[in-house]
Amino acid sequence: MSYSVRVAGALAALAGTARAVSSLSEACTVAKVQAALPADGTFNGLSLSADSVTANTVYNVSYTGQTFFPDTTINYCNVTFTYSHDGADDEVQLEYWLPAPADFANRFLTTGGGAYDINSQGSSNPGGVMYGAVAGMTDGGFGSFDTALDSIFLLGNSSTNWPAVYMFGYQALRELTLIGQNFTANFYNTSDHIYTYYQGCSEGGREGWSQVQRAGDLYDGVIAGAPALRYGQQQANHLFAAVAEVVEGYYPPPCEFDKLVNLTIAACDPLDGKTDGVVSRSDLCQLHYNLSSAIGEPYYCAESTTMDISGAGGDGGMITLPAQNGTVSAEGVALAKTLLAGLHDSNGKKAYIYYQMGAEYGDATTTWDNTTESWAVDLTSNSAEWITLFLELKNTTDLSLDGVTYDTVKQWMIHGMEQYYDSLQTTLADLTPFYENGAKIIHFHGEQDPSIPTGSSIHWYESVRSVMFPDMQYNASVAAMNDWYRLYTVPGAAHCATNDLQPNGPFPQTNMQVMIDWVENGIEPVTLNATFLTGDYLGENTQLCSWPLRPYWNDNTSLIPDCVYDQASIDTFMYKFDAYKLPLY
Ligand SMILES: *[C@@H]1O[C@H](CO)[C@@H](O)[C@H](O)[C@H]1NC(C)=O
Ligand SMILES: *[C@@H]1O[C@H](CO)[C@@H](O)[C@H](O)[C@H]1NC(C)=O
Ligand SMILES: *[C@@H]1O[C@H](CO)[C@@H](O)[C@H](O)[C@H]1NC(C)=O
Ligand SMILES: *[C@@H]1O[C@H](CO)[C@@H](O)[C@H](O)[C@H]1NC(C)=O
Ligand SMILES: *[C@@H]1O[C@H](CO)[C@@H](O)[C@H](O)[C@H]1NC(C)=O
Ligand SMILES: *[C@@H]1O[C@H](CO)[C@@H](O)[C@H](O)[C@H]1NC(C)=O
Ligand SMILES: *[C@@H]1O[C@H](CO)[C@@H](O)[C@H](O)[C@H]1NC(C)=O
Ligand SMILES: *[C@@H]1O[C@H](CO)[C@@H](O)[C@H](O)[C@H]1NC(C)=O
Ligand SMILES: *[C@@H]1O[C@H](CO)[C@@H](O)[C@H](O)[C@H]1NC(C)=O
Ligand SMILES: *[C@@H]1O[C@H](CO)[C@@H](O)[C@H](O)[C@H]1NC(C)=O
Ligand SMILES: *[C@@H]1O[C@H](CO)[C@@H](O)[C@H](O)[C@H]1NC(C)=O
Ligand SMILES: *[C@@H]1O[C@H](CO)[C@@H](O)[C@H](O)[C@H]1NC(C)=O
Ligand SMILES: [Ca+2]
User: Fold this and answer.
1) Using an 8 Å Cβ cutoff, are 285 and 269 in contact?
2) What's the gap in Å between 273 CA and the centre of ligand 10?
3) Are 390 and 436 within one domain?
4) For the chain, what is the mean pLDDT?
5) Between 20 and 30 A from 25 (CA), which of 173, 249, 269, 434?
6) Alpha-carbon dihedral sign for residues 173, 481, 578, 280
7) 531 CB within 6 A, ligand 12
């Protein structure tokens, strides 16, 4: 034992804990990890493999410029091992990053992934380790940490890999957490409560909600950004813009829609009381800005070269887009208005929602067809794949839009909801076990998200509110929600990211610290701490308003908005999805 370790041990003893503190290198051995694995039979139906254990120390790794945690330098013990489900011929790999014993703060963080990835290849783990948390990730049993669900989704023609779907849906993270809590307690030889957290965005946000809904007893705090929940709707919604182009027979030059976005930002920026290039109130934009005023405005984009990733024929090669010089057309504005209204079926019933005004029209981006010399529909392989692979069970991303209508898109949504209601849909709105456990949720969503509608998160909050507190008046139910579940919109922010077109917007980078303060110290995040990560106020602090309060600057010299109650604005986010017979949570 080295001198410094003995001193640390003596200090720990003085502080009243019996734990002997060893150094990272002393603790981080295969034998010590094997000894700390949960004993056989701890978890019904799961068998851990002691033989599979690996352990290595990692020192002084620095992370800077991250979106979801501040700059940090960490040391950790990198541990991997596998387990299998009894009777199933499978193997799931887990990876845990363990802080040095002296840095461990009785915390555990589960991390998730994005798109069809169940993990983030370790990029989310530092956001736990830096706070003295063991951070874990899983490969879901898909074969490796970089194997995505879509690549192993089909077992054969039209044969669904259901175990993989359920693992992705919620089961793998639940097991990662269950095993991780016990392993953590054993590794650090503590019987103290292990504060257990989750943090993720997009698919990672959906995974967070999957845990709130189906493993509510395991967590103390869940941080979920822009969640891809309501999966059947969310995935098919990515096709809505392409279908609208076909149905309306108008294929906007990308430059035209880019111009529309710029004009919208310019017109709506001041409506929030502060002219900073940031649309903090897309609700006021919707109420007060008429897109028709953009008709006739000139646009110009020089010739450019881009990657061709379209579903139909896109081969990942480079494609040259011609220079675009024109004026915003009535057809372009009509198409944009159709999109902004959200998907309606042929009876005019509402099936889904779109992105907020000011967000980019990425789903509507057309491609140049150099044989016809015209702009054409561009299905990205990801969005087509939801239909071809996950709904039609075909091993292809080729999707034809011939004969496809708005009713077809609605049917895709219903089909997805029905097929994956108990795995991917992630809309079990009764959160009683989580709530009764006293656990907390920080949920945030970019006001200008171009990939998952901001309104999707607000509709989910409202669903939970009405299911959990059905007998209360609106304000009373919001007060009841505030004690444990808060939703914040992020002015100007894009999808789980800052927004190049609105660089003066903030981002909530310190959510883990805020959650720790809420769970462990009872500090309620009445507003959400956020930081300017780009733009004129780089490094400065601001606060995000908690729904249903909305940001407004009565003092435009302040970086921090007032949080106001504005019924007309709230009402723009209240949706009635009457295209469905079942409630859409
Ligand atoms: C871990 O599992 C063992 C059984 O193997 C149990 O005795 C122990 O209480 C568990 N510890 C925690 C922290 O869950
Ligand atoms: C890590 O960095 C610290 C401070 O720069 C240094 O003292 C220490 O030796 C480094 N440790 C390793 C293992 O590189
Ligand atoms: C963690 O361990 C696994 C298994 O040995 C290895 O593949 C991975 O590269 C390690 N990661 C780091 C950061 O050391
Ligand atoms: C899907 O197609 C690819 C080639 O395009 C092939 O490698 C793979 O085996 C196919 N998968 C199934 C399940 O048929
Ligand atoms: C899958 O279907 C295709 C086309 O029907 C057929 O050529 C192929 O042999 C089938 N593959 C398997 C593994 O059944
Ligand atoms: C674990 O801690 C207990 C006291 O809490 C102590 O008696 C025991 O020796 C420790 N075990 C190890 C392996 O350090
Ligand atoms: C939109 O504004 C950005 C700067 O914010 C600019 O780079 C881009 O060229 C503009 N697009 C069009 C079509 O004018
Ligand atoms: C938007 O402007 C157009 C053209 O001036 C007009 O026809 C339309 O009624 C306006 N829409 C709203 C909602 O005011
Ligand atoms: C069309 O673009 C492809 C590459 O995307 C190129 O190979 C081909 O020569 C082009 N054809 C014409 C007529 O420009
Ligand atoms: C765009 O077209 C207009 C009118 O046709 C013309 O005056 C202008 O020079 C063009 N701009 C560019 C950059 O080619
Ligand atoms: C709800 O609370 C807001 C202030 O947060 C207040 O302006 C509004 O009048 C209240 N509504 C009702 C119905 O009490
Ligand atoms: C809030 O964010 C600022 C930077 O904007 C940071 O310095 C501060 O530590 C954060 N507070 C919490 C509680 O994380
Ligand atoms: Ca503004």
Assistant:
1) no
2) 36
3) no
4) 95
5) 173
6) negative
7) yes
